[in-house]
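Milestone 3.1: sequence recovery, worked example.
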């Protein structure tokens, strides 16, 4: 689709937004939202006709890109057939979505509880774990993000938790492995894995194993930095949880449904959790949907005991129809395999080549279409390009980097001192190379702030 400029409509959209829309995670008078006129595939555009290659996939959810015709048609067909229905009934779209998801989840995660998004999935997964074990505490990692509802934000390990932290929420944080900024002074992945597992086991010992319901981890942390776990770590967590009767929860809200080049990131590590949360890519974000995939053992807990939780829109027919169509499109078009191939042949090599030429790049990490560049002032000391949770003038280097990328027609995903490279899973080779070229120019600006 060719963008058609219409600045008058854009001005009206912007005025209505500024008058009435309350935006998340923002000081309302300090933001300037772009008015978006349309989107297709890997691109979106504004009312002035400027087009952007979206290296954010929305909020890492448009795994099949914008406006895929088969998914749009499925939503339209479902709306004409049965646009909504209460969750207590068996509905074809809901049943089929659950079947297709269960076929792809690892192990015996064959029951699906549908939610409206990822945070609600985490809320319900932790509730299931607490009810299943009769224990109150949940362990989660620093450098994590699990959502913005009450329990999910307390489980989160980044600064967005701080204003919402209620302290006595039964949440205990621990350090997960991250070799580049190792809290364990490790020199290699083997040491990092061993020491991280020992730290987790020590935390469990001092908190009291009999008080801990679950350990929740993002299989590959997303917003916190796309830190792929070292070999053996997730299997080690699985073993520790089994030993103490603790429920192991993997959060695949961002990493799931093709993002890492597998249906789920857990498939890279041959690990099956007891509960798995999902959302975002399950239907490419076309209609809000999330859920919890549940093991046979935990499902049995509620076979004759009512599960005390539910949502008015659980398994909404429009959302589930979009999920069915998305999963089928991903199969038909080989989109999971495409994500793996683009990561292996274009993004991975291309980002590493950029790192060789730009002193502002401290580390490249990722897989599939799930990558992060750690930007630094000094490669030797690994000092971040901006301070942790920087704002205002302290964040000037990253702001300059982002402005340059946008001026070049690339919309970047920026968090703290990192830029994440997370295009749609079906991004083409040409589009990926186009994005890398713009990143090259933007990194030249970041280089100006290095020592």
């Amino acid at each position: 689709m060719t963008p058609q400029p219409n600045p008058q409509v854009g001005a009206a959209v912007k005025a209505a937004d500024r008058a009435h829309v309350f935006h998340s995670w923002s000081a309302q008078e300090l933001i300037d939202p772009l008015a978006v006129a349309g989107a297709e595939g890997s691109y979106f555009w504004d009312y002035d006709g400027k087009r952007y290659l979206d290296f954010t996939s929305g909020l890492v959810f448009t795994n099949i890109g914008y406006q895929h015709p088969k998914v749009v048609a499925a939503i339209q067909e479902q709306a004409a057939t049965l646009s909504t229905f209460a969750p207590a009934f068996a509905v074809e779209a809901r049943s089929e979505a659950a079947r297709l998801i269960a076929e792809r989840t690892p192990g015996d995660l064959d029951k699906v509880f549908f939610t409206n998004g990822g945070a609600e999935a985490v809320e319900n997964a932790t509730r299931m774990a607490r009810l299943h074990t009769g224990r109150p505490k949940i362990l989660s990692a620093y450098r994590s993000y699990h959502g913005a509802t009450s329990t999910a934000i307390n489980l989160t390990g980044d600064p967005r938790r701080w204003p919402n932290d209620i302290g006595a929420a039964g949440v205990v944080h621990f350090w997960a492995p991250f070799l580049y900024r190792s809290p364990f002074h490790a020199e290699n992945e083997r040491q990092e894995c061993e020491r991280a597992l020992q730290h987790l086991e020590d935390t469990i010992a001092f908190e009291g194993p009999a008080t801990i319901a679950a350990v929740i981890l993002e299989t590959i942390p997303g917003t916190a930095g796309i830190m792929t776990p070292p070999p053996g770590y997730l299997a080690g967590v699985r073993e520790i949880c089994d030993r103490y009767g603790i429920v192991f929860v993997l959060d695949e809200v961002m990493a799931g449904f093709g993002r890492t080049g597998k249906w789920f990131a857990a498939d890279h590590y041959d690990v099956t959790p007891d509960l798995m949360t999902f959302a975002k890519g399950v239907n490419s974000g076309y209609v809000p949907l999330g859920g919890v995939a549940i093991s046979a053992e935990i499902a049995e807990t509620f076979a004759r005991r009512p599960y005390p939780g539910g949502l008015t829109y659980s398994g909404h027919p429009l959302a589930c129809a979009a999920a069915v169509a998305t999963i089928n499109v991903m199969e038909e078009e080989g989109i999971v395999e495409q994500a793996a191939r683009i990561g292996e042949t274009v993004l991975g090599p291309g980002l590493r080549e950029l790192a060789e030429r730009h002193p502002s790049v401290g580390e490249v990490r990722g897989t599939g279409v799930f990558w992060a560049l750690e930007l630094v002032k000094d490669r030797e000391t690994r000092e971040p390009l901006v301070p942790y949770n920087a704002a205002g003038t302290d964040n000037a280097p990253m702001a300059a980097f982002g402005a340059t990328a946008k001026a070049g027609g690339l919309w970047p995903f920026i968090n703290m001192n990192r830029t994440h490279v997370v295009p749609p899973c079906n991004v083409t080779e040409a589009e990926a190379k186009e994005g890398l070229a713009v990143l090259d120019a933007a990194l030249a600006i970041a280089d100006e702030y290095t020592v």
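Residues 262 and 336 are 6 Å apart (CA to CA). DSSP finds 13 helices and 16 strands in the chain.
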